[in-house]
Specification:
single chain; 157 residues; alpha+beta; 25% helix
């Protein structure tokens, strides 16, 4: 009924209705082929899987956990083929890019940047928050320490 109109949501992923984007088309086709439902969380899971799969494939026949971690640490430009804004997972830092979606009736439409399929990237978007609002403690490498043990695999030079 329009009660939620003018609600804005930030996203680092392409809107699901961005059907002109080949990455969104591929994601939607793959999910629908197995009777699933598309959703932003599914896009995140797909991106994570593709990142892992690329790192694992680079290991070839010497696939080990250490090899995958070492390859992941080398990835400094990741978009999941255009599914999301550019990120730097190898440095373990959040993206500085995003877009705003506006609820209009029952659909989210891209409000900013105005051109659909574009992200705005700016280092000013990375805001430092006080540790009191963190959900988990992080060490100097931005790794959550709550369940950190000596068995954690880290990249090797």
């Amino acid at each position: 009924a329009g009660y939620g109109n003018d609600v804005y949501v930030q996203s680092a992923f392409e809107p699901l209705d961005q059907t002109s984007n080949p990455a969104v088309q591929t994601y939607e086709s793959a999910v629908q082929a197995v009777g699933g439902k598309t959703a932003p969380l599914g896009m995140q899971a797909t991106s994570s899987f593709l990142l892992w799969a690329n790192a694992a494939q680079a290991c070839g026949s010497t696939l080990t956990r250490q090899c995958v971690i070492d390859n992941l640490a080398k990835v400094h430009d990741w978009t999941a083929g255009g599914l999301q804004a550019q990120t730097d997972p190898g440095a373990n830092v959040a993206t500085q890019c995003g877009l705003l979606l506006k609820l209009d009736g029952t659909k989210f439409v891209q409000a900013y940047p105005q051109q659909a399929g574009q992200f705005d990237c700016n280092s000013a978007f990375a805001v430092k928050l006080p540790q009191s609002v963190w959900f988990a403690g992080l060490n100097s490498d931005r790794v959550a320490t709550k369940f950190l043990t000596k068995n954690v695999i880290t990249p090797q030079p």
